[in-house]
């Protein structure tokens, strides 16, 4: 049968379907002398024109069944000859569907083509290089995120994420490198960014692929931003109503574990968090790094219960001013691992302050009662201070001080009323 160039002729001709059967049957014989129908049609019309002919024929009820079968044969032919995914992408006119790419059925068909191509040839062809010809990475990340929010397109969004992860693995990228590529910055917004989840997914895949260089998310963030900056971010997120509070808490726990496993001492962590000089009269209240440091003291103490008393005594030697040291002990008391030793030393230091005979309004600051908060009245140091006020007033007639007025100067009236 003579094939004409006319696009309508081949499907209008009643002999065409018989020729297709004949050609395919001949190509399937043991001799293999025949050429399949799709190969012959491709040679006659070329991929582009044949694809358009078949697409048009699919829209006609009379030719739909045969055209659909030939379209499947055409895709299988492309897979057999390893047709470039870029060419297929363009053939599917996907370059003209920028805004709703992941919702386009042709995109799903193209993804399947690349998957089948890799399965057939045991290759590692990625969809990412093709997509990068038409989109910036930021646009693709945004597409994936929006797609994942809709049930009908969630699978495609996840597939695009996975494609990026596999592409980076094949490129032997590192988590720190990907963090930079994702343009994640050292701010609290980073913890809410969906790109952080993509980094987590990549890190998991990286650790599976390269177990000899395994890393963690907290190590990646620390390598990129430093201990102090990461601590500020995690503390800010934890103490706010951010949705990312849970992951921030998990990362902080990982941070403490990382420091402990690397053999860092309590002094080491104090220094890497760039906390104030130990010889200063610094007030730790409100310092985010201070809370993290105390949390590390707890982690260290749990692992080394026999070293707690020595640790606190050593700190008392380093911190010459009573106020910062007592603030340390006040914070340490909240953890069972340090509670007993910290409470004991705190009272000893308070007694030392009271023994100097300074006025109660100065003593209250020295023993840091003005920064205890709502639990001030239940503090054993407060009881000691109250006794000291009475003792001071007896020994210094004419210089008496009111415990209530002194306490009021440290806590506003309305707050003091609630405490009392």
Automatic annotation (TrEMBL):
User: Which keywords are on file for this protein?
Assistant: Secreted, Signal, Virulence
Subcellular localization: Host cell; Secreted
Q: Which GO terms describe its cellular component?
A: extracellular region; host cell
Q: What is its main location?
A: host cell
Asked if the Swiss-Prot or TrEMBL record annotates the protein with the keyword S-adenosyl-L-methionine, the reply is no
Q: Which residues form the RxLR effector PexRD54 WY domain?
A: 74-114
UniProt lists the family membership as follows: Belongs to the RxLR effector family.
Protein name (database record): RxLR effector PexRD54 WY domain-containing protein
Q: Which source organism does the UniProt entry give?
A: Phytophthora citrophthora
């Amino acid at each position: 049968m003579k094939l004409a160039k006319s696009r309508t002729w081949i499907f209008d001709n009643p002999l065409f379907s018989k020729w297709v059967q004949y050609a395919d049957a001949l190509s399937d014989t043991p001799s293999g002398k025949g050429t399949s129908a799709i190969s012959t049609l491709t040679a006659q019309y070329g991929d582009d024109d044949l694809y358009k002919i078949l697409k048009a024929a699919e829209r006609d009820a009379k030719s739909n069944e045969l055209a659909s079968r030939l379209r499947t044969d055409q895709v299988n032919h492309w897979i057999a000859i390893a047709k470039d995914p870029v060419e297929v992408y363009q053939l599917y006119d996907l370059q003209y569907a920028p805004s709703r790419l992941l919702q386009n059925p042709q995109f799903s068909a193209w993804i399947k083509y690349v998957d089948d191509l890799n399965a057939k040839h045991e290759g590692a062809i990625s969809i990412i290089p093709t997509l990068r010809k038409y989109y910036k990475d930021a646009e693709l990340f945004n597409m994936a995120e929006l797609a994942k929010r809709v049930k009908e397109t969630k699978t495609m969004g996840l597939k695009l994420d996975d494609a990026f992860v596999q592409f980076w693995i094949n490129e032997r990228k590192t988590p720190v490198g990907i963090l930079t590529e994702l343009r994640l910055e050292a701010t609290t917004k980073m913890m809410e960014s969906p790109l952080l989840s993509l980094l987590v997914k990549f890190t998991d895949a990286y650790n599976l692929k390269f177990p000899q260089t395994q890393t963690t998310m907290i190590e990646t963030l620390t390598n990129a931003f430093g201990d102090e900056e990461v601590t500020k971010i995690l503390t800010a997120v934890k103490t706010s109503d951010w949705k990312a509070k849970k992951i921030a808490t998990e990362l902080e726990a990982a941070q403490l574990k990382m420091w402990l496993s690397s053999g860092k001492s309590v002094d080491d962590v104090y220094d890497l968090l760039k906390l104030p000089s130990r010889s200063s009269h610094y007030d730790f209240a409100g310092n985010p790094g201070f809370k993290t440091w105390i949390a590390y003291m707890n982690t260290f103490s749990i692992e080394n219960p026999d070293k707690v008393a020595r640790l606190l005594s050593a700190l008392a030697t380093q911190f010459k001013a009573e106020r910062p040291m007592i603030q340390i002990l006040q914070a340490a008391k909240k953890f069972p691992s340090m509670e007993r030793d910290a409470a004991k030393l705190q009272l000893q230091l308070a007694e030392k302050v009271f023994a100097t005979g300074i006025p109660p309004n100065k003593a209250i600051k020295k023993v840091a009662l003005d920064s205890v908060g709502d639990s001030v009245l239940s503090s054993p140091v407060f009881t000691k201070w109250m006794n000291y006020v009475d003792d001071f007033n007896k020994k210094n007639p004419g210089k008496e001080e009111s415990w209530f007025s002194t306490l009021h100067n440290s806590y506003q009236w309305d707050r003091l009323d609630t405490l009392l």
